Amino acid sequence: MTMEQPEEGTRSRLLVGRQIRRWRTERGLTLARVAERSGLNVGYLSQIENDKASPSLAVLGQIAEVLDVSPAWFLMNDVPPPRVVRAGERPVTATDGGRVEHVDGRTSREVAILEVVGAPGSRVGAHAHAGDEHHVVLRGRMRLTQGEHSIEVGPGDYVRWDGSIPHDGEILGDEEAAMLLVRINPRT
C-alpha cells in the first residue's frame, strides 16, 4: 500500500490499485471477468487499478471475494522479505557428546529454534530457564526428565513443558539422537 501525498488542506488516500492488479493477474483473471463476477463496471475497476478512483470498503470486499483473498492483502505493499538461514550458516555450539544448532540463526528474541543432537549415552544436564519448550524427536530415543516426571520418547514424538522447571535429556540406545526444540521466550 502506498499513500498519495495530499495537497495542502486535503486528506491522503490509500493506493491499492497495484495490489489489486497483482492479485487479479496472479489469478489469471481479466478486468472483464472480475467485473462480471463482482457486478462492478470494467471502467471503474480500471480506475481503481490505476489509482484514479478510491474504492469503498464494500467495493474492496467485493473485489477480494472475486479474487479469493483477504481485503487486507490489498493494503500490504511494503512487506519485508522472508529471512533465510542456510544450513551451513547456522550458529553451532558444541556440547559434551553432541551439538546444538540454532536453526533460526538467532534471528528472533521471542522464539529460539534449535536442533539438538547427542551421541549415545550423552546427557544435556539439568537446567532451567524462562519460557515454554516444544520438542519433536527427529531420530533416536531419549529419556526426558522434568522434576519427578521421566518419559521415553522416539521419532515423531512431541513433548511440551515449562522450561522454568529443571529438566534434563539423555540419549538412549546405541545410536545418535536428534530433536527439534522450539523455545518460546517470555516478553520482558
Commentary on this structure:
There is one protein chain. The protein has helices at 17-26, 31-38, 42-49, 57-67; strands spanning 2-3, 14-15, 92-95, 98-102, 111-118, 132-139, 141-146, 149-153, 158-162, 167-172, 177-184. It is an alpha+beta fold and 188 residues long. It has 2 domains: 7-75, lambda repressor-like DNA-binding domains (434 Repressor (Amino-terminal Domain)), CATH 1.10.260; 87-184, Jelly Rolls, CATH 2.60.120. Strands 3-4-5-11-6-9 form a 6-stranded antiparallel beta sheet, with no helix packed on it. β7 (141-146) and β8 form a beta hairpin. It is elongated, with a radius of gyration of 26 Å. The relative contact order is 0.13.
Radius of gyration: 26 Å
Proportion of strand residues? 25-35%
Q: Quick one: biggest sheet?
A: 6 strands, antiparallel
Distance between the termini: 32 Å
Question: Segments where pLDDT lies below 50 for 5+ residues?
Answer: 1-6
CATH class of the largest domain: Mainly Beta
The level of helicity is: 10-25%
The whole-number mean of residue pLDDT values reads 89
Oligomerization: single chain
Query: From the helix content, strand content and strand pairing, which structural class follows?
Result: alpha+beta
CATH architecture of the largest domain: Sandwich
**Please, how many helices?**
4
Write the H/E string, N to C.
EEHHHHEEEEEEEEE
Summarize the model shown.
The protein has 188 residues and is of the alpha+beta class. It has two domains: 7-75, lambda repressor-like DNA-binding domains (434 Repressor (Amino-terminal Domain), Orthogonal Bundle), CATH 1.10.260; 87-184, Jelly Rolls, CATH 2.60.120.10.
